[in-house]
Design goal:
alpha/beta; Trna Endonuclease, Chain: A, domain 1; 2 domains; five-stranded mixed sheet; 6 helices; about 50% helix; about 10% strand; transmembrane helix; Restrct_endonuc_IV_Mrr; Type_IV_Methyl-Rstrct_Enzyme; membrane; transmembrane
Length: about 240
């Protein structure tokens, strides 16, 4: 049976070969066209296969990119944890602010980044009973870094200046903040808090505009509970005690 099938196959191949040879002799032009068309079809098939493989790779890459973007979006939706305002983990400020004046706390504000400083100020506002506390600092914030609602319902707008000890807040800083805190942000209480100090012209402008200024020492007093909250202080400057 095998030899019969082999003989039939060889006969068919021989017949096809004679047919092709006869066609070449009679119409060589048509044979050339058929050969060119066959080659073109083969090239087109290879291109289609290449495009299909490229499309599969692109789809895989897009799928991976979409998964990564979804993971990053989920991470961004997780609220950031605000840094603790006390350096001593064993010390907590009670809600009534009944703090031993001799137990001062160094919050370590100098070691924070400007963004972390804003988060720390927001944490102080929350600790002292504010609601709807939000950190809004960044590009286009128009001077507002932290906004909140005080326990008695007033809207407080805070600008944070994380300055070095030798870099005091000047009158231009106060003027820029004063131009937006009330008219743009609708503040009932406007506060500018810094890790440094204020120049005399800056304090004079704050008194005129009703802006509460909190310098580095007053910030430490607010932090450890020995000083008032900014929204309970007189505009311009605080008095100790």
């Amino acid at each position: 049976m095998f030899f019969v099938i082999l003989a039939v196959l060889l006969s068919v191949l021989g017949w096809v070969a004679r047919m092709v040879a006869g066609a070449v002799e009679r119409r060589p032009g048509w044979v050339l066209v058929l050969v060119v068309m066959g080659a073109a079809a083969l090239v087109g098939l290879r291109r289609r296969l290449h495009v299909a493989r490229a499309a599969r790779r692109a789809a895989t890459a897009l799928d991976e990119a979409a998964r990564e973007a979804a993971e990053e979006l989920d991470a961004d939706l997780i609220p950031r944890q605000r840094p603790a305002v006390e350096a001593d983990p064993g010390y907590e400020v009670d809600p009534g602010h009944e703090v031993d004046p001799g137990h001062a706390v160094d919050p370590g504000y100098d070691s924070l980044t400007p963004g972390e400083f804003e988060e720390a100020i927001a944490a102080l506002c929350e600790r002292d009973g504010c609601s709807d506390v939000e950190v809004v600092g960044g590009a286009g914030d128009l001077g507002a870094d932290v906004v909140a609602v005080t326990p008695d319902g007033r809207r407080v707008v805070v600008q944070c200046k994380h300055y070095g000890e030798s870099n005091r807040v000047g009158s231009q800083d106060l003027q820029r903040f004063g131009g937006t805190c009330f008219t743009v942000h609708g503040a009932d209480v406007a506060v500018l808090v810094t890790t440094s100090d204020f120049t005399a012209p800056a304090m004079e402008y704050a008194d005129q505009c009703g802006i509460v200024c909190v310098d580095g020492e007053q910030l430490r007093n607010w932090t450890d509970g020995t000083g008032p909250c900014p929204w309970d202080a007189a505009p311009g400057s605080w008095t100790d005690g």
